[in-house]
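To make the argument concrete, we let one protein speak, a sequence paired with a row of structure tokens, as a model reads it:
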Amino acid sequence: MPRPCGPCSDPRRKELDRRLLEKDLNGESFRRISEDFGYSETALRRHLNEHLAVELSQVKAAKEEARAEALETAKAKEMEDLKDGIKEGMAARLENAAGFLDQLKEVRTKAANLLDMAEGAQDLRAAGIFLRELREQIKLMAELEGKLASQPQINILLDPQWIELRTVIIQALDPFPQAKEAVVFAIRGR
């Protein structure tokens, strides 16, 4: 029957185990620990390899498992809260908005908040997406408020086809001076 491990039954075990586990970090040798606790270097190495290594690996495995479970639970809760917040918050605000312009303002505010969050997280891709969305929101609001024309403005008076047509009409009215004068007056808008 093997002899029981002396360091395992030592009343100073916590301190002994701590020093054995930290020896590589602080540069302490087995010899120094052996002198302080009265065990042979071989006994200390065996205790570290056979008892502490097993216990440490079990603790590490349990710690990693608990951490993974906690992280997964936190992520699931965060996603659920985010979904609930988006559903309740944005949908409620849009339903309460009086008109399209108010709804658009709510959407613009949300896009601005998301842009701030993306910039804070230094997520350049998301920030670019929200920045484009904000630009579109501003453009749409300007169009709705009449500050920006949504359709291009065409000046017919400068169009070469109009100039040609106008010349043909005026020349056709040469035999009728009064009619010609009236048409020219009307074209000039006087």
Notes: The two ends are 123 Å apart (CA to CA). The chain has a mean pLDDT of 77. The helical segments are 6-9, 13-26, 30-37, 41-96, 100-120, 124-144, 160-172, 177-188. The chain is about 80% helix and 0% strand.
